Amino acid sequence: MRSSLRLPLVERGPNALEIVERNGQPLAPGQRWRWMVEMSRDVRRGERLDLPRRLILEMANTCNLDCPMCRIGRYGVNPDRFMPRTLFDEIADELFPRIGEVRLNGLGEATLVPWFEHCVRRVREAKLQGELITALTCPTDTIDRLVEAGFVLLVSWDAATPRLYELLRRPARFEDQLRRLRHLGRRAADATRSADIHLLFTLQRANVNELAGVVDLAADCSIPNVVVNVVKLRSEAWVTSGREGIRMALDAARARSIARGVRLFVPSHIGDLVVSHPDALPSSADGCDRPWREVVIRWNGDITVCNMFNPFSYGHWRRHGIEAAWNSPMAHAFRRLVNTPDRHPYCVGCHYIEGVYGRRVAGAGT
Amino acid sequence: MSLMDVHGGAATPGPQGLAPPSASVLGIWRDLRWHDRLYRLDGLDRRTRCAFLGLRVAQRIAYNWGWRRGARR
Hints:
The complex is a heterodimer of chains A (about 375) and B (about 70).
Chain A: H1 16-24, H2 29-39, E1 54-57, H3 85-95, E2 101-103, H4 116-125, E3 129-134, H5 140-148, E4 152-156, H6 162-168, H7 174-190, E5 197-203, H8 211-220, E6 225-230, H9 237-241, H10 243-260, E7 263-265, E8 269-270, E9 273-274, H11 290-293, E10 294-297, E11 302-304, E12 313-316, H12 322-326, H13 329-337
Parallel strand pairs in A: 1-2, 1-10, 2-3, 3-4, 4-5, 5-6, 6-7
Antiparallel strand pairs in A: 8-9, 10-11, 11-12
Chain B: H1 25-41, H2 46-72
């Protein structure tokens, strides 16, 4: 007898129950029940949302650098963790006509993807606002294509001194990187796109005293913006023990940014330290709208929450499709809980500064 | 059994977290509605959904029956 049951085991991508289970794993036992109840609630017709304007595509989940605070590149570059080109084209065909902004990176270096310029071309052809966070280890030709395509670029740059830079961005060479950064600054200035270029400084214990130097370096390379992000660790004890040092470093950086005409974007808190600068910007920890405004598609087709790469999943591109995942019970549960005390543990103390990247709020920063 | 079911059965004896979820009509009805939504999200056809939901009921009743019977020994 021929079975007419269509077993979900043969489908590509995890099924919905697997996703629910995976989402439940990192939650504390006391919190898990609340989340499970929310994920099992009906999604009413009036609750359904239109797709967001902003899409984040993780082109590569691998990196050629092995930075101590990230470790995504600890085993070297793994091409198996590039988003397949067929998947990228499927997504671009379906979503590019329906969105306004797209970011092309995730937890890894997107410019390593051999057909990365194809992605940039598709973004340009679709007339979308492109965005990329990169360590800038790519060839200068790629930099030129990105500037020509009008991308908002955030270059990860964690130190002003060669020795520390090379420790934090191993095995990059400071001089080579600086040459590329200068090239980017010149190209952007020639194209009158300097305002779209940023240095992204990830504050961590080792580089607190480097921030003012990075502001100077940005000015020297014609980069007009420095964004401060904070390393994500299990414990933020390093902030508690180094409060005074962090405060002094921020004050020094602010003075340099005013003197050199560089806009400095700092979140209103660093760990439990409240940043009292008059121009410190609220972060998502103060109230988050990302689950309504953006969606992430990971290299393997997982559909997740936000640009901070919370692993919570709404569904899978090939198994469920974007429409169903965006309005799945998991997605609505996340939205109901993100701004409550029961928020996902990954969201606690988030340092994302809303509106700095891509579409910047007018007047933000010094 | 899934994480979804772990909370149930706190009043029953035995190791924490292993107690079976309620086999009441309401408990089973809620479970079936929830899983039917997940199966729809996965794009399963009606016949497959019904088969899986039937298996869920059988599994839940069997687990409850076995748990209670074991506890009486």
